[in-house]
Amino acid sequence: MKLRLRGGGMQRIFKQTFRIEEGERLLKASRCYLSTTAGPIAGLLFVSTEKVAFCSEKSLTISSTNGGFIRTPYKVVIPIEKIKRVEESQNIDKPKQKYIEIVTIDHFDFWFMGFVNYDKAFKTLQKSINISQQH
Q1: CA angle, 41 as apex, 47 and 121 as ends, to 5°?
Q2: pLDDT tens digits for 15-61?
Q3: Domain that holds residue 19
Q4: Which of 36, 68, 110, 120 has the fewest CB atoms in 10 Å of its CB?
Q5: How confident is the model at residue 8 (pLDDT cuts 50, 70, 90)?
Q6: Are 89 and 101 in contact (CB under 8 A)?
Q7: Is residue 126 part of a domain?
Q8: The GRAM domain covers which part of the protein (predicted)?
Q9: Dihedral sign computed on CA atoms, order 37, 40, 43, 45
Q10: Other C-beta atoms within 10 Å of 79: how many?
């Protein structure tokens, strides 16, 4: 699955890729990379009123239970209420390399980088958390 922007754009991709809660609104979608132990994965980061969700641009090949291989997008879904904190970070040697770290209440860390508009992505994450805390 290669994510392509056509009619409906990011909203359509978000709805097709993830389960949407009643009343959930997409606040922002950003192209970025998710840092993994195997290296960075290019994709889209969706920030909604209910969740932070990432989907890789390209499908990854993984082994299936029957011994074959399947292609599937790499997805991460973090419910807003599970987020403990969101941190800004940058490479000391290369200050233009900025990262967003999301830490969950169950101690998982997710690092996102390579945003076209880092500041807007970070502010949208903060806004989503603030909206969630008001309910």
Answers
A1: 30
A2: 999 999 999 999 999 999 999 998 999 999 999 999 999 999 999 88
A3: 9-133
A4: 68
A5: low
A6: yes
A7: yes
A8: 12-90
A9: positive
A10: 14
Q: In what helix (H) or strand (E) does residue 47 lie, and over which residues does it extend?
A: strand 41-48
With respect to residue 4, please indicate whether it lies within any of the assigned structural domains: no
Average pLDDT for the chain? 89
Which residues, including other chains, have CB under 8 Å from residue 71's CB and lie 6 or more apart? Answer: 1, 59, 60, 61, 62
Q: Is residue 1 part of a domain?
A: no
Does residue 2 lie within any of the structural domains? no
State yes or no: pLDDT of 123 exceeds 90. Answer: yes
**Residue 132 has which token pair?**
């969630």
Q: Tokens at residue 65, please?
A: 């239970």
Query: Quick one: which H or E segment has residue 63?
Result: strand 51-63
- pLDDT for residue 135: 61
CATH number, domain of 14, equals 2.30.29.30
Whole-number Cα distances in Å, 130 to 50, 68, 80, 89, 126: 11, 44, 10, 20, 6
Mean pLDDT lowest among 4-13, 37-46, 114-123? 4-13
Q: How far apart are CA 93 and CA 49, in angstroms?
A: 35
